[in-house]
Each structure stands twice: as structure tokens, then as C-alpha cells.
């Protein structure tokens, strides 16, 4: 049953139910072609979960294992109703945002993307952004829950600048494609070579391009969050179903019977993004977090640009050399999986439980690491050093774990030489 507090509903619900019905029929036909001793095929069922008060997202379309395999081997297509979009127009748009956001936007030109934060006066993160310059306008990808408030807050700082800031989340919708065949899939439904060439080289940073998919004008944003090629598709909400159906229509079954494109829910996405070392706003850090607490300062903050809102707090934290707490990656030493919100304790020299020092924010069993239990935790700085031993509550008891060096467990497949095994 849908929550009454949902702000953004997915326009793709009918497509998801059609997919489940088609999968159920396909399995039934396949089952009847086998021997009479075969087990009956189970019905496909799309499952939804709440994303705060913002939206409902698909948790799994049918099989987490198959959806995860699509991310790592072919192309996974994700419905993202929880995302929001802000449009910034006017000749002064880059100069204005240069004074507002944490990143140096002066190099931003048509087709380029920058990762940045919008902070409040206390230096805490109000929005985690991808800033995409298109030449005639600029689009900001952010969480749908903060899109309206962020657009309004930025607008309060516009005085004589030639800038207009608009929350267009009700107009623009979000679909994403992740996997080694993502760009090939986009090509099959209409993306031209020029746009794909712009997206094909992440070595110079993230990029964006305008392209027609299934004859629908879209904006494509390269953003590799799962250690695979990743493309966010910004599409008119009333045309999202056309693009979604076109993406899944290009599912030519390969020789092994594997689908080229498969719909993918949150659970498979979550496994892959934890392996890739991608903490998420609203999951692993929030509006109560300071930039240095996220482990992402190097990606989102420039220390050589001029002033911006909250800059004094960020600079002071940098000069102190350490925050009180920080997001880290962890790996359990035993085959137990802690849940989100699990307590983290110091481990004393004799192996016993010490003081509480943190909390688990995300966790999963990693297929790339032999089903090892890994995840993210927010822990006091004294216990954030690589190799630090902690105890995490799992299955009703405290189990040992180690803090990882860096956030990623999986090397991006797009790096030279491919993924390390």
C-alpha cells in the first residue's frame, strides 16, 4: 500500500507491472516445455520500499542476483523517483554558483560536470549535487527531498545577477543505466555517436550531453557510482515511460540466455555501490553532516577557490586536521551481517568490548568478495585509521570487524587494465 506522505510517484508503475506479468508468462511457458517432474515456475513480482517521505522506489523487480549480474555483466536499468532536478539559467549562472557551492566551477564549460555541495551557514551539507553545464543552461542533480528547499535558498542570494533558479523535479524525471554495455544500449535506442563520445571518456571527469532516446530529447550524465559505466538520464516526466520501454525493449538474449538489459531495483544497486565505495546522501551522511565527516571532501570541495557559504567552517576543520567522526568502509571478520543502525564499539587490547564509537549506515554481502559482509559506518576519528579493529553488533552479539583503507572494495572496470580480481 502506498504511503500518503510520498511526494514523487513513479510514472513507470504500469511498465513495471507489465514487465512482471510478461516474466510470469515467460516462465510458465518455459515450465510447460520441461518434463512433468519440473517444479512450477514462480510468479515475478515487483516490490517497493519507502525512500523517506520523498518517494517509493523499487526494491527488487524479481531477482536480486540477476539484477546484480546485469550491473556487472551487461546493463541494468534503474527507476529513480527519489531524485530531483534544479534548472539554472542566465548568463551569470556559473559565476553565481561559484560563489555559492564548495567546488571550483570556473573550468565548467558545455558538456562538463562537477560534484559539489551546498552548505548552510554552520557548514553542514544541505544538498549533494552534480552540476551539469549544457551550454545554454545548467542542470543540478540532487536528492528530491531537498530540491525545492535548495532552489529557494539559492534564490534568496540572487540580487543583481542574471540568474534564474527553478526546481523542475515535477517536470524532469530520472532513469539510470549502469553496466559495461550501458553506452551500447543507449546507442541502440538513438543516442548519436557525438553524444556517446562525450560520455565515453571519464578520465577527464564526469561529462554530460543532450541526446534523443527513442526520439525523446534527454540529457545524459556520466556518473560511475557502481564501479561500472553509469549514465543518469534526465527525461521529461511525461515521456519517461517511452524511454524506459525502449531501454528494456533492447534486451536481445545473448548466446548464454543472458538479457542485455534488465530492470534493477534498490537492493542490487545498493550491493554494487557499497562494493564501489559510494556513500550516499540521505543514507550514509545527511544534512547534519559536516563535509570532512563524509570521506568525500577531495571529490566535492576546492580549497583554492574563493569564499562560499559555510567556507569558514570547512577551512577551520581542514586546519584542525581531523573531524570528530568520519564515514569509513568496514569488513566483518566473521560470517555475520550487521544491519543499518547497528552499534559500533571500540575493541580493547584483550579483545573485549569498549566504549560505543559509531554506527553502521549501510551493509551488504559482497558477491565480488566471496559473500563477505562489508559496508559503511560513521565512527569516531580515533577509530577510523585503516586496519582499526572494532566490534559491531550483529545477530544479537558483538562481532569483530576491521576498518578498510579507503572506501572502495572493487576497482572500477573502466580503469586501464580492467578490474582487479
Stated plainly, the CATH topology of the largest domain is called Gyrase A, domain 2
User: What is the H/E string?
Assistant: HEEHEEHEEEHEEHHEEEHEHHHEEEEEE
- Count the E strands: 19
> What strand line-up does the widest sheet have?
10-11-12-9-3-13
Radius of gyration: 22 Å
Question: What is the total domain count?
Answer: 2
Segments where pLDDT lies below 50 for 5+ residues?
1-5
How does the helix and strand content classify structurally? alpha+beta
- Major sheet attributes: 6 strands, mixed
Residue-averaged pLDDT: 91
**Number of DSSP helical runs:** 10
CATH uppermost class of the largest domain: Alpha Beta
Fourth CATH level, the homologous superfamily of the largest domain: Probable tRNA modification gtpase trme, domain 1
Strand content: 25-35%
> Globular, elongated, flat, extended or rod-shaped: what is the shape?
globular
* Straight-line N-to-C gap: 43 Å
Which range best describes the helical content: under 10%, 10-25%, 25-40%, 40-55%, 55-70% or over 70%? 10-25%
* Name given to the CATH architecture of the largest domain: 2-Layer Sandwich
Amino acid at each position: 500500500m502506498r504511503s500518503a506522505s510520498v511526494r514523487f510517484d513513479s510514472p513507470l508503475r504500469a511498465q513495471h507491472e507489465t514487465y512482471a506479468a510478461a516474466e510470469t508468462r515467460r516462465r510458465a511457458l518455459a515450465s510447460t516445455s520441461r518434463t512433468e517432474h519440473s517444479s512450477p515456475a514462480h510468479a515475478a513480482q515487483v516490490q517497493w520500499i519507502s525512500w523517506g517521505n520523498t518517494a517509493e522506489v523499487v526494491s527488487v523487480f524479481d531477482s536480486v542476483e540477476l539484477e546484480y549480474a546485469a550491473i556487472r555483466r551487461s546493463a541494468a536499468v534503474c527507476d529513480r523517483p527519489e531524485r530531483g532536478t534544479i534548472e539554472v539559467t542566465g548568463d551569470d549562472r556559473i559565476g553565481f554558483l561559484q560563489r555559492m557551492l564548495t567546488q571550483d566551477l570556473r573550468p565548467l564549460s558545455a558538456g562538463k560536470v562537477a560534484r559539489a555541495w551546498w552548505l548552510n551557514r554552520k557548514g553542514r551539507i544541505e544538498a549533494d549535487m552534480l552540476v551539469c553545464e549544457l551550454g545554454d543552461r545548467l542542470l543540478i542533480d540532487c536528492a528530491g527531498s531537498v530540491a525545492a528547499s535548495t532552489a529557494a535558498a539559492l534564490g534568496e542570494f540572487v540580487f543583481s545577477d542574471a540568474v534564474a533558479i527553478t526546481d523542475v523535479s515535477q517536470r524532469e524525471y530520472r532513469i539510470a543505466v549502469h553496466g559495461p554495455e550501458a553506452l551500447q544500449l543507449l546507442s541502440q535506442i538513438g543516442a548519436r555517436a557525438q553524444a556517446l563520445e562525450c560520455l565515453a571518456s571519464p578520465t577527464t571527469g564526469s561529462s554530460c550531453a543532450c541526446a534523443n532516446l527513442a526520439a525523446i530529447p534527454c540529457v545524459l550524465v556520466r556518473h560511475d557510482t557502481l564501479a561500472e559505466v553509469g549514465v543518469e538520464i534526465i527525461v521529461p516526466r511525461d515521456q519517461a515511460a517511452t524511454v524506459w520501454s525502449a531501454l528494456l525493449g533492447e534486451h536481445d538474449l545473448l548466446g548464454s540466455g543472458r538479457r542485455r538489459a534488465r530492470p534493477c531495483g534498490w537492493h542490487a544497486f545498493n550491493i554494487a555501490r557499497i562494493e564501489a565505495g559510494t556513500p550516499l546522501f540521505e543514507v550514509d551522511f545527511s544534512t547534519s553532516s559536516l563535509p570532512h565527516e563524509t570521506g568525500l571532501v577531495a571529490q566535492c570541495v576546492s580549497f583554492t577557490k574563493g569564499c562560499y557559504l559555510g567556507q569558514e567552517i570547512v577551512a577551520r576543520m581542514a586546519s584542525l586536521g581531523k573531524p570528530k567522526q568520519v564515514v569509513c568502509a568496514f569488513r566483518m571478520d566473521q560470517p555475520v551481517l550487521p544491519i543499518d543502525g547497528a552499534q559500533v564499539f571500540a575493541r580493547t587490547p584483550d579483545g573485549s568490548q569498549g566504549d560505543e564509537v559509531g554506527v553502521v549506515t549501510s551493509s551488504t554481502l559482497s558477491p565480488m568478495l566471496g559473500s563477505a559482509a562489508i559496508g559503511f559506518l560513521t565512527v569516531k576519528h580515533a577509530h577510523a585509521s585503516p586496519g582499526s579493529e572494532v566490534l559491531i553488533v550483529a545477530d544479537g552479539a558483538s562481532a569483530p570487524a576491521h576498518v578498510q583503507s579507503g572506501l572502495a572494495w572493487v576497482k572500477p572496470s573502466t580503469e586501464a587494465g580492467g578490474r582487479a580480481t
